[in-house]
Amino acid sequence: MLIIDKEVNINTDYLNLSFYGEIETIELNKLIQLKNLKHLNISSSDLFDKHLIFIGQLETLELLDLDLTEITDNGLRNLNSLKRLRELRLKDNPQLTNDCIEFLSDIEQLELIHIENTSITKTGLIKLLTQKEPKSVILGSEFDNEIDELLKNY
């Protein structure tokens, strides 16, 4: 099967779709045919909220890499139906703010969240840690001076 000019085995469990340029929704719709897909890397792409509607239908996903994309807080609500998603990478998305915490908290089985270089503040992080209790949160250096306080609140 051809997805965004890449030959993809229909039984693959990993797919890297990182690229620049407009993503046609018809291309993302093809992802639904990949019944064994567990890891989707679509980082460093012109990926917008409208695309997350299709990604939110990939029921087998366990790891989703959305680093350096154009998604917003509100777009993350489309991922709530991913019942197997354990790891979500959101690094280098400075447009993501504390407003996305409620959507992240709704992804019940999420174990690891990467939020380095987002606009999520200490307040948002504390809210996430108290509502979600993920096993791991990867932070950026912007939190270096606040680790002790964060650990007290957690």
Task: Describe the 3D structure.
By secondary structure, this protein is of the alpha/beta class. Helices cover 22% and strands 14% of the residues. The strands form two sheets. It has a six-stranded parallel β-sheet with strand order 3-4-5-6-7-8, with no helix packed on it. A two-stranded antiparallel sheet has the order 1-2. The model has no long low-confidence stretch (mean pLDDT 88).
Defining traits:
154 residues, alpha/beta, two-stranded antiparallel ribbon, 5 helices, globular
Summing up helix and strand content along with how strands pair, one would put the structural category as: alpha/beta
Total count of helical runs of at least 4 residues = 5
Q: Outline, from the CA principal axes?
A: globular
Radius of gyration: 16 Å
Oligomer: single chain
Amino- and carboxy-terminal Cα gap: 46 Å
Helix and strand pattern: EEEHEHEEHEHEH
In helices, the fraction of residues equals: 10-25%
* Total number of beta strands: 8
Percent of sequence in beta strands: 5-15%
Strand line-up in the sheet with most strands:
3-4-5-6-7-8
Topology:
Layout: E1 2-3, E2 6-7, E3 14-16, H1 25-29, E4 39-41, H2 49-55, E5 63-65, E6 87-89, H3 101-105, E7 112-114, H4 122-131, E8 136-138, H5 147-153
Parallel strand pairs: 3-4, 4-5, 5-6, 6-7, 7-8
Antiparallel strand pairs: 1-2
Structure summarized in a few sentences:
This protein has 154 residues and is of the alpha/beta class.
